[in-house]
Amino acid sequence: SLCEYVSTAVTETPKRTFSVKEKKKRSVGAPYKETVDKSVNGEAQRSTGAVQGASNFRSEYRRTGEESRGSNPRQSEPHLETSTFALSGDSAHNQAMVHWSGQNSSVILILTKLYDFNLGAVTESSLWRSTDYGSTYNKLNDKVGSRTVLSYLYVCPTNKQKILMLSDPEVESAVLISSDEGASFEKYPINFNILSLLFHPAQENWVLAYSHDYKLYSSMDFGKKWQLVHENVMPGRFYWAVMGLDRESDVVHIETRIAKGRESQYVKCRAQRCTEGNRQYLFPGHIDTNSLVVQDEYVFTQVTKSGRASYFVSYMRESFRQMKLPKYCLPKDMHIISTDEKQVFAAVQEWNQNNTYSLYISDSPGVYFILSLENLRTSRGPAGNLLVDFYKVEGINGMYLANKIVDNHIKTFITYNKGQTWALLPAPATDVAGNNLHCILPFCSLHLHLEMSENPYTSGPITSKKSVPGIIVATGNIGTELSSTNLGMFITSDAGNSWRQIFDEEYNIWFLDNGGALLAVLHASTPIRQLWISLDEGKKWDRHSFSLVPLYVDGVLMEPESDNHIITFFGHFSHRSEWQLIKIDYKGLFSRRCMDGDYQTWYLHNKGELCVMGEKQIYMKRRPGNRCMLAQDYSRIYSSEPCLCTAYDFECDYGWERQADGKCSPAFWYNPNGVAKSCSSSQSFLNSTGYRKVLSNNCKERGRNVYSPKRVACQPKAPQGLHLSTSHGELSATVGSNVTFMIHLDNGESPSTSIQLDFGDGIKITYSNLSRTDDGIKHIYRMTGIYRVIATAENNLGSDSTTLFLHITSPVDRVYLSAPVVASKEKAANLTAVVWPSHTRTLTFFWWFENSSEPIITLEGSISHMFLREGKNKVTVQVACGSTVLEDSKVITVKEFFRSLLLSFSPALDEHNPDIPEWREDIGRVVSGVPENQLMVSLYPGLPTTAELFILPDEQMLNIFVTALNQGLIQFELKANIRIIVYMTQQTLAPLVDSNSIHSGSAMLMLISVVFVGIAAFFIYKFKRKIPWIHVETEDRHEKDPEVISTVGQNDAMSKVKLSEFPSQKELMEKELEGRSRAVSTFSSLC
């Protein structure tokens, strides 16, 4: 499925430090269920674990200077100022969330909680606030309510003075809102449980809330009032508008699950006006669940049909287009890695990959992808999410690191040209002790761990910073492959061209002073009391003590873009101590602010080549060792000069592949002389040379423009290779839906080539050239059927055509099996399945007879069947329409001989006829009053109420029943004071005499002859006919529905049944009686 990377803004951890190795892109503010503790939302909010027990350590102490220098160092020497504060009384709390307001604010908020893992709920909480950068804290429980249990802390990313807190829903459902950095709170009750919040990227008061019952709510006043946006919303698949792309800033993009289905819909609406009439369904058709991604200029979806996934993209909110990967990539899975710089990086699992993915890079619209690097190392996070070993280096355009599996070995590669070429990392010449390593490429190299830390309290295994381009610090090892043992810390100061080892253990490393200094803290499970700081890019490290007592460090918090030079350490002294918050002011490391003479320049290069991404760039950095503070706004780039273009400033265009000599050649499956769509609107077109310029590359081409597309005059050709499909490759659609047809021509397009599309329902449309069909051709079908859709391309040099068979269906509401109650043995009986609403040969009928192991399958709703044994035979018909299957069953009594009469009833019966099968069965049983093996009565649907009497071979029973009917003696009581009399509809129908009856006398012989002829006529009518109303054929056989395909059933000799109009039940009865009357007339005339 399509996945985007999502980053939390606030996090909470237990006391021990941990890091979830996953990079995410957007802030949802939801708890991460894959960890034991929840995650929280907020830019700088972190959580550290609480410690049980009490501590004898005083609440606050202050210490200055390095451990080795005593307590009063000279101010000219580098020193740290530290102070410690203990959160007294919260020793039992085992979770904490910390927020630094930032923007040079001195306010820090800490929420500590006691989370009961047995109950799965928060049972206690405390809120602490500091106004002096963490030197002291005040407890705010009285301000929020002494009995209020707080479960979550959120901070508005666009105005960090605004705080939103959630109370535990087990106690009360409410939000607490502060607009003054937690100095005061207002409580507002809510009627739903919030699982996650999503803040608007620009409007500070606009918030989306996702509830436990899959509902999405919106608030335009920072949580005071909430309004339902939509139900059945997929978790994490909701997005605010992107400014500059969506017309209205309050637009919400939502993926909603279709009820009881495995598919979803992409819905776009306004946050406060998302009623059905105001919703937009921008993607025609359904999408796979958990596939909607809205990121920057792009919207991605996925559709799986017949086991193969197709991926679609909308660029700049235009129509969706199918993403094109190389023809035989055949993707099994795709994950969006990045959409930076108006380009898509995607990890694609190809058909022959199991544990690896390949890196593909797109053009600007995100449609045409080319391969950059095969067999990327991947893993799965705690929640099953895909983790890709791919890292973008901050501050250097086009520079990336990736871990690739080569011969079952994981190796780290680097690119300086956005994935056109990749190379192994050179290892340091010496280790941290100065010993020679003798690691020679390509047999030995440096390998780095590239996972991004999800815990914002730790730096993660690799870090770089935009304000210090060229410096990368990472955890890794030297050898033939990446290892998880013998790890050390490595640094580069020249953008990866050379590396140095700085530690032989794993450390968390942060940039201080806008990148001018480095802070290192040992990544250990044991308590520590020292940290390391370097002012010369890791060449020299000074050790400083930050605590008198060793501290279990759970995290480090700092404001990255601030001039206050404050760090806060979170942790505990022992497993029974209280929370300890250590404030460190490192301003004493510097003696002054940097001046012009404190900087030096350095050249960005790639193994000596100064042209990187099409330009020569000179950067500025502080001279190593200078103890001056960097200004936030000093320019890092000193100068930039474009270079002349080379082949590696271009990537191979779609359908082209890089060869060993560096040139791009067409892939075997790609025809470079195919269609150029621009030919449809002009006399020339830009023909690809096989190259496309790398996005954000600034090289200048020579006068000949060797690599750029060339303008070529259009050469008219006969159309060849015309393709017709629906927009999503489906061959079926529902009645009344908008079907979008896509037309593609491989060869021969010219301004004179016209396109004609015959929709198969009598409507045709013609376009003067192919470019007018780029967005597809939409059409609505009003009737069910299978339509032959024909596309034709034609010019004065020739033509080409192609055909698509489209099934237009509608949902089946119910099915009724019309079958005789009694049938003759070894004689064909007609069965009909009546479907509401009517369909024109778009259904499949499965007929099950008696104990048959296989059904008879037809495309028509009627069939003739011969029963071979007497007795009761059950017949079941199943009607399949897409994934919907309905059925109806009837029990047919089969006899060798039987008689039948038509019956009618007193008019009062019609007033109490609900016209349902169960009522008709009960009335028939009352009328017969005798065992079913002798006599059966079957009532017909509709009004007036009529029935057919079946008399099984018993001459005496026949005479008795006919006499009783003629005399009106057959009656029954429907209810109190309502008696119903049963009549014969036509007395001339009775008695029907079996041909085996024996009578004497010439008169009787004459009667027998006449009756025998009548019986024969009636039996022919009764058992060789189809139900009269089924024979609805056009009298003029030339007046057929235009272009509806005449599908033939299993039995080609069977009459074709046209169900374009289905008669009402009253009409059914009238036609049945009319047919009966015709049979009576035939019998009478014979008499």
UniProtKB/TrEMBL annotation:
Residues 59-69 have a biased composition (Basic and acidic residues). It is found in: Membrane. Residues 750-802 form the PKD domain. One of its GO terms (cellular component) is membrane. Keywords: Glycoprotein, Membrane, Repeat, Signal, Transmembrane, Transmembrane helix. The chain crosses the membrane at residues 1003-1021. Residues 22-79 are annotated as: Disordered. Coiled coil: none annotated. It is a single-pass type I membrane protein. InterPro entries: Ig-like_fold (IPR013783), PKD_dom (IPR000601), PKD_dom_sf (IPR035986), Sortilin_C (IPR031777), Sortilin_N (IPR031778), VPS10 (IPR006581), VPS10-sortilin (IPR050310), WD40/YVTN_repeat-like_dom_sf (IPR015943). Residues 42-58, 70-79 have a biased composition (Polar residues). Signal peptide: none annotated. Pfam families: PKD, Sortilin-Vps10, Sortilin_C. Its main location: membrane. PROSITE patterns: PKD (PS50093). Gene3D superfamilies: 2.10.70.80, 3.30.60.270, Immunoglobulins (2.60.40.10), YVTN repeat-like/Quinoprotein amine dehydrogenase (2.130.10.10). PANTHER family: SORTILIN RELATED (PTHR12106), VPS10 DOMAIN-CONTAINING RECEPTOR SORCS3 (PTHR12106:SF10). Belongs to the VPS10-related sortilin family. SORCS subfamily. This is Sortilin related VPS10 domain containing receptor 3b.
